[in-house]
Specification:
By secondary structure, the chain is mostly helical. The chain has 15 helices and no strands. It folds into two domains: about 210 residues, Rhopdopsin 7-helix transmembrane proteins (Up-down Bundle); about 120 residues, Homeodomain-like (Arc Repressor Mutant, subunit A, Orthogonal Bundle).
Length: about 350
């Protein structure tokens, strides 16, 4: 009979919970970022499960397995390190960019993973010992730094000033960066020899418990899993039609240029209920109605400020034409989204 110590048992439960959360998130809804996060949990749990198997063989001499099966499980587990990095980075992009869509070009990030996956029955341990493990760690670290950059650089630190769902999202992503950073340290060549195979697995289990608590806590307020509107009903077709009509209306008629625009009036133009429109905007862009409209007004103002033919217009005139009802509101909102006042932005454009 295989003996299992407490730390191994804790790691097993953590890995199992990782798989359970992956299934829960996958079926929660069909948003791209949730699917990516679900796959990330699966890939990481598989990688940690490999360490648990190795640890079990170290502490129990009775633990045995056919050589070909052992080689396959080891290769299969380690290979998933080449999937963790790309999934982590793409998840961050999907959460931070409202226009993010998975494209065929993104599959190139997974080329090393797929190549090694097909060779899981044949790769020998010297490959991992001499170069593979180092490459896999460098891969994860590189994608981690890219995700870090994507989370901290946008809009020159303006994320800290965001309200509502946008700020909640970035707070969550930064918490995830911290948890992942600790795991990266645990699996770094410098610390791995002290923590061993099971040390990182236990830290992963703790990380999964922390993530679980964050997700369950946020479930009632906003949400990271998009459950804010779980008490209302909007079909997938209605959601898609609303977003399609909204984009068309905003491009062709620019209703945001009306300073008196309200959720009610915009919903009437689209022939939908106000709460359905609010829900569609939140689910598509992770923004409130006012955030969504102000962002369009700022973009319109930027276009006019960069137009040489409108260089003679006063800043206030451009603000009013873009839909703002006052100069002070225009200045503060523009700076919130760009990090500059309209006049600073205009001067910078003139110099370039």
């Amino acid at each position: 009979m295989i003996s299992i110590d407490f730390t191994t048992l804790l790691a097993i439960f953590g890995t199992f919970q990782g798989f359970l959360f992956a299934v829960f998130i996958w079926f929660r809804n069909k948003f791209t970022f949730n699917r990516l996060f679900s796959l990330l949990l699966v890939a990481t749990s598989i990688r940690i499960a490999k360490n648990i198997i190795v640890h079990a063989s170290d502490i129990d001499p009775q633990f045995s397995m056919a050589p070909f099966l052992w080689r396959f499980l080891m290769n299969f587990g380690i290979t998933h390190q080449f999937a963790i990095g790309p999934l982590f980075y793409l998840y961050f992009l999907a959460r931070l960019r409202t226009d993010f869509k998975l494209q065929t070009v993104h599959l190139w990030h997974f080329a090393p993973y797929l190549l090694l996956l097909f060779g899981s029955y044949h790769i020998q341990w010297p490959f991992w010992r001499d170069v593979g493990l180092w490459l896999s760690y460098i891969s994860i670290l590189t994608y981690y730094l890219l995700a870090f950059r994507a989370c901290y650089l946008p809009r020159q630190g303006q994320w800290q000033k965001e309200q509502g769902s946008a700020r909640t999202t970035v707070t969550w992503l930064r918490s995830l960066l911290l948890i992942t950073g600790i795991l990266l340290l645990a699996y770094s060549p410098a610390l791995f020899k002290y923590l061993g195979y099971i040390g990182g697995a236990v830290l992963y289990a703790i990380g999964i418990y922390v993530v679980s608590m964050i997700l369950l806590k946020q479930k009632r307020t906003n949400s990271l899993l998009q459950t804010k509107y779980q008490g209302t009903s909007i079909s997938r077709r209605l959601y898609e039609n609303t977003i399609r009509d909204l984009i068309k209306l905003m491009m062709e008629h620019k209703p945001f240029k009306n300073p008196d625009l309200t959720l009610q009036s915009l919903a009437e133009q689209l022939n939908v209920k106000p709460h359905h429109l609010s829900q569609a905007i939140n689910q598509k862009y992770q923004k409130s109605f006012s955030e969504y409209i102000n962002e369009h007004r700022v973009e319109e103002a930027k276009i006019q400020l960069m137009d040489p033919q409108k260089a003679h217009l006063k800043i206030a005139s451009i603000g009013f034409d873009s839909g703002f009802n006052g100069l002070s509101t225009f200045n503060s909102t523009f700076k919130k989204y760009t990090g500059q006042t309209p006049s600073q932005f205009k001067k910078q454009q003139q110099k370039s």
